[in-house]
Design goal:
Pathway: Cell wall biogenesis; teichoic acid biosynthesis. This is N-acetylglucosaminyldiphosphoundecaprenol N-acetyl-beta-D-mannosaminyltransferase. It catalyses: UDP-N-acetyl-alpha-D-mannosamine + N-acetyl-alpha-D-glucosaminyl-di-trans,octa-cis-undecaprenyl diphosphate = N-acetyl-beta-D-mannosaminyl-(1->4)-N-acetyl-alpha-D-glucosaminyl di-trans,octa-cis-undecaprenyl diphosphate + UDP + H(+). Pfam families: Glyco_tran_WecG (PF03808). The structure is a single chain. By secondary structure, the protein is of the alpha/beta class. It has one domain. Helix 2 crosses helix 3. The two termini are about 30 Å apart. Bound molecules: uridine-5'-diphosphate (UDP). Uridine-5'-diphosphate binds next to helix 9.
């Protein structure tokens, strides 16, 4: 039985990082495609405007709170989530786990060269995972069949999809039935960070739920999109104080 917390109609899994890792490892023992998404406040808010995205998130096999805002929302709702489970951390925990010796990974997404650099950096750090295929994230609709063929011919267990949100969630959902993998994770900018082309917020910002502030400083053009963060919290508060119909 899943332990979830409903946030604006989306069931977010109430799991610690260790529990999330165990669930993900469990997926690898089952013979079907599983989906894991890691929404932050922006995506949770985008899903309020986009019913298709909301349905995709609702259908995930595991939905973990990537952002401090999602954890805050659960507290406002009176059902606090155990902790923030960032997609970047979850992916890295899986890489470092003993089971990774027996897992084949496929890195799909990012600008040309990014996934290769990410893999090289992992190997340099002695994180000896098996990456059996790489494909950058810039493609036309016509190229999709070939990409799926490449993935299916590579004996992949875990497909990391780094197309940014919500593109990655929609791509996974649309192609899930055609994919012969055990697990698809939407990992956003994870490959950029692993490649060294992007930097994660310093630990202080991460610990204090201020990763958004660091990102705003580094990527000010995200301002408009980031307004979804306060919008999301306001929506959660409004929903909380709304008189319930008898
Ligand atoms: N990206 C991609 N194909 C696209 C759009 C984006 O591969 O058509 C990649 C982009 O290169 C980056 C990643 O998706 O590596 C995350 O993009 P972004 O930072 O915009 O998304 P977020 O981290 O906010 O989900």
């Amino acid at each position: 039985m899943r332990n979830t917390v409903n946030i604006l109609g989306i069931p977010v899994d109430n799991v610690s990082m260790a529990e999330a890792l165990n669930i993900v490892k469990g997926f690898l023992n089952e013979d079907r495609v599983h989906t894991v998404y890691t929404p932050n406040s922006e995506i949770m808010m985008a899903a309020q405007r986009d019913p298709e995205l909301k349905e995709i998130l609702c259908q995930a096999d595991l939905l973990v709170p990537d952002g401090a805002g999602v954890v805050l929302a659960s507290k406002i709702n009176g059902c606090p989530l155990k902790e923030r489970v960032a997609g970047f951390d979850l992916t890295n925990m899986l890489f470092s786990d003993d089971t990774s010796k027996n897992i084949n990974y496929f890195f799909f997404g990012g600008k040309p060269g990014v996934a290769e650099e990410a893999y090289k950096n992992l190997l340099d750090r002695r994180i000896n995972i098996n990456v059996v295929g790489i494909r950058n994230g810039y493609f036309t609709k016509d190229e999709e069949d070939e990409i799926i063929r490449q993935i299916n011919n590579s004996n992949t267990d875990v497909l990391l999809v780094a197309l940014g949100a919500p593109k990655q969630e929609k791509w996974i959902h649309e192609n899930k039935k055609k994919l012969k993998v055990k697990l698809c994770i939407g990992v956003g900018g994870t490959l950029d960070v692993l490649s060294g082309r992007a930097k994660r917020a310093p630990v202080f910002f991460q610990k204090h739920g201020l990763e958004w502030l660091y990102r705003l400083y580094k990527e000010p053009w995200r301002f408009v999109r980031m307004m979804d963060l306060p919008r999301f919290i306001l929506r959660v508060i409004a929903n909380r104080i709304k008189p319930k119909r008898a």
